[in-house]
Amino acid sequence: MVRPLRFPPWRGTRGAITAGVPRPIDRFGDEELLEQLRAGDEVAFARLVHDTSPRLLAVARRILKDEHDAQDAVQESYLAVVRELGGFEGRSKLSSWLYRVTVNNALMRLRKRKRLAERSADELEPGFLSTGHWSAPAQRWSRSPEDAAADGELRELLFEKIAELPADYRDILLLRDVMRLDTAEASAQLGITTGAAKVRLHRARKALRELLDPHLREEAA
Amino acid sequence: MTCKELVDFLDDYLEDALPEGQRCVFEHHLGDCPPCLDYLESYRRTVQAARAALDPDAVEPVPACEVPPQLIQAILRARRGGSE
Asked: What ipTM was estimated for this complex?
């Protein structure tokens, strides 16, 4: 018999992290533009830069808080995309791809500037005893990382911790939780099965939680 | 269900993809295990925080006129250099 729940605060949270319907930020991705870019059309490239750079610069500034670094990250992203245009299969919009590349570049610059290290996947798994119980029980968080949207200090912490994730974890997290691709789209972009994408996303989320935990739990407040 | 098994099923639970029977067992465990409840809540917050911090729709583009012209020129020059 199922006993009544004593603490139901998770009620209404199911479904809250579903990737949901993508909200495209762009009007690019059409075959015509891609063909123009692949053919080396300078006008098409200039238009792409003109139309997409305001958002890319904004997110790079948000992550790096340094104008010089932010501009370098944006420039690097366009060049990376030009280099890889031949292999771009058009599974995502071109400007979504540029956005993701820019976020990644900015996070890597942040990691280097702060002298942070990429963490190994093994050290980021929650710990359990052989009985399946917690080896160190999880504790309530006193601060919500969702406040990062308004709290500059929390947002900086969040960026640093995402930057410390293993590259595979960062990629799937950006595709699924930030760019809101569904599992099939994300797995196609990464060249892995949907099953592997689900497992990797779960590990990535657990890893990010582990990295944030010491800073947000009640005893740390 | 152990705490480890609960964590294994977390995404399925949050995405409402657990079969009814498993969901009941899952919620039964949550009702009895404050550490698992705290873990679930912090896990959910982690996902939402990453999204809130980097969501492209939440990043207000800088006004086009504020993108430094020298940055645009540097990108166009570098592209010409790289493609030649």
From this structure: 0.91
